[in-house]
Amino acid sequence: MGNHFDPDLMYVECGECGNPILWEPGRTRRILEMAGIDPDGLDERCCLISEGCPMCKPEASHFATQVVRLGREKEDGAKERRQSAN
Ligand SMILES: [Zn+2]
Fold it and tell me: Which of 19, 21, 79, 84 would staple 12 via disulfide (CB 3.0–4.6 Å)?
């Protein structure tokens, strides 16, 4: 229980306009729950990409989001490099 990650501290960015999104405390956790994502499986290397934000899509009331794990992208890249070497 020592390494509990607070999903509200997760960095959220708009995938459409690239702006960081700051929303009210508790909203990130609620979005994760709605998306069926277990916050306990996340850590500080995860960030949330939103398909739009109130800045670029003011008419939308909710936005689809996607969790991106920063460390994992590097692992995938290393795998691809190994495959192309063979
Ligand atoms: Zn945006």
Answer: 21
